[in-house]
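User: Show me a protein chain along with its predicted structure.
Assistant: Here is one chain, sequence first, then structure tokens.
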Amino acid sequence: MRCGFRLNSRGRSGHVMSGLVCGLDVHRRFCEATVVDWFGSVVESRMLPGDELYLFLSSMNVSLVVVESSSYVYPMYSRLRGIGLVVIVAHPRKTRLIAENRLKGGGRDSKCLAELARLGALPSSYIPEGGGS
């Protein structure tokens, strides 16, 4: 599996991906995780406490994890990177604007994040090297 990451001139992720994408909606005590395949089909969707999330992601063999920036995301970002996952932190305001215009419906943030990443339409936030540590 190959997964690379770069930003295009508009600050959107231009990742090269094969495999599964996981969108995470991070809350204080749990995370909503939705895994989609290259074609946009939902492979798995779960509500998980933080400690179970890492085992779930390892077992699903995802190639990319997408989380929306919040106060809870930085420790998670470091831990996900630490276990070898490619992580994109989505810009919350820009992501919300795109989602409201393109993906009306379901109301599930984790699925929306995974879909935006899969489509290459995800505005990302800058995380400095060693971010979240």
